[in-house]
Amino acid sequence: MADGSAASGTLGGSVASGTLEDAFGRLDDLAADAAAGRLALFLDFDGTLAPIVDRPGDARMSDELRGCLQALARRMPVAVVSGRDLDDVARRVALDGIAYAGSHGYCMRHADGREEEQGREFLGDLDAAERALHAAFDGAGDVVVERKRFAIAVHYRRSPVDPNLLERRVRACLSGVLSAPERLEMHGGKMIFEVRPRFDWHKGRAVMHLLACTGGRAPLFIGDDVTDEQAFRTLREEGPPGSVGIVVDHDDRPTWATLRLDDVAAVERFLVAFSARL
Ligand SMILES: [Mg+2]
């Protein structure tokens, strides 16, 4: 998990993942729904399709899983929804005929190639913040500022600086350069701060948006991280009947999902078995 705090703020109604039924117990029912044209498949990338690795640039999904997704995409709508930039995740999955959502859903590419973007009005704020953060941290050693299209990551994995002090410095940078600093917000994670627009758009909104193009299907969403909880919660609260969230977790964390799978290997076994039933 990148950030336990984001999930803990919205726990009412969630349950411990360890108490959830394993998704393999529902495999036949879900495959029957998919075969009847009632499901669309939505998948996170890191920690779901590809194992988490030390360097995000090294994340890869297996060729067997790629072949499985390709087969699934011939039978049902498939989308990959990631915190990575759109082109980055699309390059790693490398399949045509499926939809992609990058930047936690801000950037979407439909299966027919049509692209949409939410939150463009925040790009100027992010540009100003990026300049200030580079000025503050470049050359200071060990703190790396990485601009993504709709976020700025401040990595401090190798920095000896106290994270609390670093957080104050990042906040001071933002308030010093932005006329309305509240338009951006900071999210903590594993050895990273991420500055993102304060905007009610997230993976759950992207799933519902892409779902609207699938002709009344219900979403089956599989994800592992706290940003995926926004999708699980959206499906519970706003999804059509038959919506299913599967959390990839073996740590008994609180979740809005309704089923679970243990790890990336279990996701692959599940999707291969699911595909074989269609
Ligand atoms: Mg993930």
Instruction: Please estimate the helix content.
Output: 25-40%
Largest beta-sheet details: 9 strands, mixed
Count of separate structural domains: 2
Write the element-wise H/E pattern from the N-terminal end onward.
Answer: HEEHEHEHEEEHEEHEEHEHEEEH
- Tell me what portion of residues adopts beta-strand conformation: 15-25%
Q: Would you identify the CATH H-level superfamily of the largest domain?
A: HAD superfamily/HAD-like
| Rg, alpha carbons | 19 Å
CATH top level class name of the largest domain: Alpha Beta
Number of helices: 9
CATH topology of the largest domain: Rossmann fold
Tell me, what's the shape? Answer: globular
According to DSSP, the number of beta strands is 15
CATH architect. name of the largest domain: 3-Layer(aba) Sandwich
Order of strands, main sheet, comes to 2-15-13-12-3-4-5-6-7
Category by helix and strand content: alpha/beta
Please tell me about this protein's structure.
With 278 residues, this protein is an alpha/beta fold. The chain has two domains: 4-117 and 201-276, 3-Layer(aba) Sandwich (Rossmann fold), CATH 3.40.50.1000; 120-197, 2-Layer Sandwich (Alpha-Beta Plaits), CATH 3.30.70.1020. It has helices at residues 4-8, 27-35, 63-73, 86-93, 123-137, 163-177, 203-211, 226-238, 264-276; strands spanning 15-16, 21-22, 39-43, 78-81, 99-102, 107-109, 115-117, 144-148, 151-155, 184-189, 192-197, 218-223, 244-248, 254-255, 259-261. The chain is globular, with a radius of gyration of 19 Å. Mean pLDDT is 90; it is low at 1-10. The site of magnesium ion has 7 residues, from loops.
